[in-house]
Write a structure and sequence with these properties.
The complex is a heterodimer of chains A (205) and B (147). With 205 residues, chain A is α/β, with parallel strands linked by helices. Chain A contains 5 helices and 8 strands. Chain A is 31% helix and 27% strand. Chain B starts with a helix and ends in a 24-residue tail after the last helix. The longest helix of chain B has 24 residues, at 100-123. In chain B, strand 4 and strand 5 form a beta hairpin. Classes of the chains: A alpha/beta (205), B alpha+beta (147). Chains A and B meet through strand 1, helix 1, strand 4, strand 5 and helix 2 of A and helix 2 of B.
């Protein structure tokens, strides 16, 4: 749920990177944190990771990003990842609370397809528990790990994961190499800002 | 916002806490009063809200409707998180020489008052609406660029 603070001229939105375990959600945020260009005289936010000793996400990763996307308003994008392992579903629900846009990071390998499908199904269920409807939330699907050997063609991935009335935009990616990372981020921010403008659509008195 | 700020400043003055944060439960920092040495309050707010949400989840597992507050005691500082309403919580940071009881004595009515302010704000018809028609969404282009 986007928050607009007229006193401080700030808009805050929440983007969650969701997907099965080891699909590259944290790598996306790490790449963004490492490479994002920020305006002069601003300080880059810190990437906060609550992870296990073996760097598996335990609760979430969080990275705040600022941009001027609406004239006269500072827009703060709160980027989160969820833990991907099956036992952490309760935690995923907590992180999804108030989400404005989702980047679903999927494995591209054939053998990981079942995990992708299960993660997508569980994501819809978690959103329903939070009284949210996936059809009403901006969604981008990232087919990550395209650099690996045994990857399914995009057409197959689309058929399995993006077979819906209104298809979500998709991006091929290799997050470890930074490919597809900013493209996915820019598309989700564009989608959620467009949705926000359409829904508010108020005029000044 | 002025009323909210006044309420939170009053709370800090009475309770002698260092910092009061009004946090939306999705993790956004709505408003801050006071300061804490070398602290990223936005990240603190995000971590606090998620921790509080996790505890609410635990409450449901023990058939408890709501754990209304959460207290962490440290060696130099302690934190108290109080539920304001369905969407917001109040986070206080205070030195440990202050007792939880004394901080809570002032914080509980402050949280109620803040809840009333939020409720009345949400019921109010927008008098200072925004004109967002300035932005043509097709011009958003690339907001973020990598090096």
């Amino acid at each position: 749920m986007a928050i607009i603070n007229q006193a401080t001229k700030e808009l805050q939105v929440k983007i969650v990177y969701y997907g099965p375990a080891k699909s590259g959600k944290t790598t996306n945020l790490e790449q963004i944190h490492r490479d994002v260009q920020i305006p002069e005289n601003t300080v880059k936010g810190k990437l906060t990771s609550l992870a296990t000793s073996s760097d598996r996400t335990l609760f979430f990763d969080f990275f705040p990003l600022e941009a001027v996307a609406i004239r006269g308003f500072k827009t703060k994008f709160a980027l989160f990842t969820v833990p991907g392992q099956a036992i952490y579903n309760a935690t995923r629900q907590i992180v999804l609370r108030g989400v404005d846009g989702i980047v679903f990071v999927a494995h591209s390998e054939y053998e990981r397809m079942e995990e992708n499908v299960e993660a997508l199904r569980q994501m819809e269920e978690n959103l329903k528990t939070l009284n949210l409807n996936l059809a009403e939330i901006p969604l981008v699907i990232q087919y990550n790990k395209r650099d690996l050997a045994e990857v399914a063609p995009v057409e197959y991935l689309n058929f399995v994961l993006n077979n819906r009335e209104v298809e979500a935009p998709t991006f091929e990616a290799s997050a470890t190499q930074g490919i597809g990372v900013f493209e996915s981020l820019n598309m989700i921010t564009r989608m959620l800002l467009q949705k926000f403008l359409k829904e508010t659509g108020r005029k000044a008195i | 916002m002025d009323a909210l700020d006044g309420e939170m400043r009053d709370l800090l003055r009475k309770s002698e806490a260092n910092l009061a944060l009004l946090v939306e439960k999705a993790g956004y920092l709505i408003h801050q009063c006071g300061s804490q040495e070398a602290m990223d309050s936005a990240t603190f707010a995000t971590l606090g809200s998620n921790a509080f949400n996790a505890v609410q989840f635990m409450a449901r597992l023990v058939n408890e409707g709501n754990f209304t507050s959460m207290y962490q005691q440290g060696e130099r500082y302690s934190t108290l998180m109080l539920n304001v309403d369905e969407n917001a919580l109040l986070v206080l940071v205070f030195p440990t020489h202050l007792t939880l009881g004394s901080v809570k004595y002032y914080a509980t009515p402050a949280a109620l008052a803040i809840g009333v302010l939020i409720r009345s704000a949400s019921l109010r018809v927008g008098v200072n609406s925004l004109d967002l028609s300035d932005l043509d969404p097709l011009d958003i282009g690339e907001i973020f660029r990598g090096k």
